[in-house]
């Protein structure tokens, strides 16, 4: 038995990574905390970003739910995490697309293309400051 055969016997069939944990083992508490943190961060980003506004609290909460669901679905089917700074340019673009797509789903959530781009940048900066997954 040579070294390759020994190494092949030692390596597990399936590698375990953090993305599998995030997409398969979400509890209700984690989901609620994620939605709450997302609502706070989106509210701050809307306040700081030109071309980005949320009309009322219910629109903000609904937008946070939509953003969390879209992020979960994208993570689940593509494996791309929509964290603007944690995943580089791909995460940044996905975060901007999620913000812009939310405009079409949530009434009272108004964002322009530039607002989505700047908003994704602001959310990335806030994500670095606030611990936990925002998007």
User: What is the percent of helical residues?
Assistant: 55-70%
Strand line-up of the largest beta sheet: 1-2
Series of secondary-structure elements, N-terminal to C-terminal: HHHEHHEH
Question: Which stretches of 5+ consecutive residues score pLDDT under 50?
Answer: 11-23
| Tally of separate helices | 6
Structure summary, number of beta strands? 2
The chain-level structural class is mainly alpha
Can you tell me the overall shape? globular
Write down the Rg. Answer: 18 Å
Termini gap? 48 Å
Overall pLDDT: 78
Biggest β-sheet description: 2 strands, antiparallel
What share of residues are in beta strands?
Answer: under 5%
Count of separate structural domains: 1
Could you name the key traits of this structure?
6 helices; 135 residues; single chain; two-stranded antiparallel sheet; 4% strand; 69% helix; mainly alpha
